Amino acid sequence: MNVNAIKITNQPDNDNLQKLKSLSKEFEAIFVEMMLKTMKIGEDSTLGNSAQNSIYQSMYQQALANQIANTSSFGIASSIFNALKKEIENVKTPTIQQPINLKQNNYIPFKLNLPKDIMNVVQKASAMYKVPEKLILSVIKTESNFNPNAVSAKGAAGLMQLMPQTAQSLGVTNVFDPVQNIMAGTKYLSNLIQNLQSVPLALAAYNAGLGNVKKFDGIPPFKETVQYVQKVISYYEKA
Predict the structure, then answer these.
(1) Mean pLDDT of 91-109
(2) Is 143 a catalytic residue?
(3) At the top level of CATH, which class does the domain 116-236 belong to?
């Protein structure tokens, strides 16, 4: 199948897909050129080993490789294009970009039997940093499932899974102390909400970092981050 025969119907991504086609052809051309050199196609021993002859042979092999790639005789470019295009399509663009109304009530969206002292800390953090209790609880539910001793593979720890550097910047001395962890985590989340003016974007930054949200000008197209934001909002909106 000729890579040029592929129809592109997604108009917004047309430029990127055209670039992908071009890169796929270039890769095939490089592959074919290496094959031609291995097979010594285009080389003529009668012309000697002069520099001029070497340049001529190289130019001939490169031109022939480009011709083969452009006609997709081997189908390598088409295979590469289809594989990469499929990977790109598998990364779904998140649609939850709209801010959540933070004036909703604080009804807890899932049945919990948390110790009273934990709930007291959540209420205190909510009042201090103007973040709804149920949003704090939704983040804790998603991050650690209310396990104060949880530690992720990346080193995030505690109820709100604070990274060491983040915890240190927020003045946390014991990341496994529920009081310190919740107060610091809520403060960090509040800062992100104020910075980005959007709860979904703030949640994305909480998971993937503020730099990535600004880099992609929205929720980063990371599967983990997209699922994280959707999960927290799902808990939050059950109320």
Answers:
(1) 49
(2) yes
(3) mainly alpha
